[in-house]
Amino acid sequence: MSTPIEDYALISDLETAAMVGRDGSIDWLCLPRFDSPACLAALLGTRDNGFWRVAPAAGRSCTSRAYQRDTLILETRWAGSDGAVRVTDFMPPRTELPCLVRLIEGLAGCVDMRSELRLRFHQGRVVPWIRVAEPGTVAVAGPDAVWLHADGLVQVAGPQDSTMLDFTVRAGQRLALTLVWSPSHLPGPPAPLAVPAEVALKETCDFWRCWAGRCRYQGPWRDAVMRSLITLKALTYAPTGGIVAAPTTSLPGRIGGERNWDHRYCWLRDSTLALSCLLRSGYREEATAWLDWLVRAVAGDPGDLQTVYGVKGQRLLPETEAPWLPGYAGSRPVRFGNSAVGQFQLDVYGEVLDTLWLSLRAGIPMPSHVWDLVQALMGFLLRHWREPDQGLWQVRGQRRQFVHSKVMAWVAADRAVRMGELLGRNGASGEWRAMRDEVHRQVCREGWDARRHTFVQSYGSSALDASALLMSRVGFLPTRDERVRGTVRAMRGLEHGGFVRRYAQGGAGLHEVDGLHGDEAAFVACSLWYADALAATGRPRRARELFERVLGVRNDVGLLAEQWDPGAGRQLGNTPQASSHIALVETAFALSSAR
């Protein structure tokens, strides 16, 4: 059986990340970047696809685990009749090459331990050559080399081309295992192996606590907010400022189903909320870096604006399938890359311009070339906003006149007008104002269901969509408007076990809108949007109850995946999901203000 998604914790060096299970096994690691091929991929297959387990030789799950306060340093503890041991896992923020340290400390008695590293490069498929090389071993396959140093322990060849160490840890004894990736053509050993593990641990702890100390949030949910902010920082590719949606791919929205996507990239749909989250939390430097990434990524022909880009801003993310990986709990296909890059989504134009407007209001200067970008994006929208698109949810069915897409086209025009007024650049504002008014009239006419008293998913449809909860947040209508209140009341139709789905489900067959088979679970971000809307429309008690319910489904170290299945009581989808943690922070601020 596959390890439950909620059993995984995250460690990161701000350029890539590893997923660590409660059994002490790292089952997912891409090197050297978030979007690089995985060299440990048991998460999506079997142990034969790569893992690194450090745990008692008896093979039991841990007794307890937690992050050190305000850090991304994971401590996992085992206790039994033979004694107790703690494994501390961390990745020092990168200065040169990616490094992963596992520090083993005896707490009581004598515990027999085992480390087994089975590397499988190129998405869990390629078996490396392994050889002894001072100060440890090195595994090489094509462009990749991984070095393992083991504090004087004797490493032996294990089964199926793995490296194994058996050793005993006594109370008070500390040992370190250090793994470093380097390009295979460079002479070794790489420099990070020379850094003592205790020094790396202190420096990593100091980095995270210094960073956490800048947080402005002082409300009743500080621990949850801080963990979400640290997670968001961990998902940031430091060299460019890009924020990946998640460090994993193909964790399913439905066990055994086909809703398996690669989220190791940066989505424009998260841009405004990510910037808002960072700015209000006190992280202006990270907000500015995210904005700079955004401006670089979208540069070019406005007609070529994509919904998703690589961590460096790259546009080509070809989607392929990996038939050699059986998938998480048999959920196929396993996908690498994302074909959403080729979709037409109107909402991203609104997301980009809303982000620029928010940054301008926050006092971040707007260079003249960014204003040129605003004009180019609006020039395209003026010609194309009436066209159907594939919407916020990137449906793989036919294009439709999605209401949320039109609302975000309105946002684009509204923010362009406001930026022009603030900057004294009103050359095209007459056209933009006219477009803004026309879009507003059309949405209120075509997107409103007078019989059900709610806005719907698309023109001519009766289906609900959780994105309608964002209408008042973006300023399309005030919260006191009865159409907003009616829409919030109607969202009871999307409730699923106390949480909220993205849109109505179609059962086991082919979904009419998204073109995929089977239902999916509730979306964490949508549930938090609902809490925000409840608070804004005068129901703070229900909002707090829903927020506390979401906090209750975080895993034992405070992480949230994309979805929650109330029936099975488990997390689903890629994890940890940036949009879930961004929404958590935003809702905490909203409810704290309401209090």
List the keywords:
about 600 residues, alpha+beta, 15-stranded antiparallel β-sheet, three-stranded antiparallel β-sheet, 13 helices, 28 strands
Provide an overview of this structure.
By secondary structure, the chain is α+β, with helices and mostly antiparallel strands. The chain contains 13 helices and 28 strands. The strands form 7 sheets. It has a 15-stranded antiparallel beta sheet that branches. The protein has a 3-stranded antiparallel beta sheet with strand order 26-27-28. The protein has a two-stranded antiparallel sheet with strand order 16-17. α4 runs antiparallel to α5, α5 (284-298) packs across α6 and α11 (524-536) packs parallel to α13 (578-594). The longest helix has 21 residues, at 403-423. It is globular. 53% of the residues are buried.
